[in-house]
Amino acid sequence: MIFLTGDTHGLLEIGRLGAANFPSGERLTRSDAVVILGDFGLLWNDPPRGEERLALGRLEESPWTTLFVDGNHENFSMLHALPEEERFGAPVGVVSPNVLHLRRGYVYTIGGKRCFVFGGARSVDRKSRTPGKSWWPEEIPSAEEYRRGLDSLEACGWSVDWILTHTAPNHILHALDLHKYLAGDPVSAYLDEIHREIAYEKWFCGHLHRNRCFPNDRIHVLRENIVNGDTEEVVSVERDRPPLRERIRSFARLRPLEGD
Ligand SMILES: [Fe+2]
Question: Measured between alpha carbons, how far is 158 from 200 in angstroms, rounded to an integer?
Answer without folding.
Answer: 9
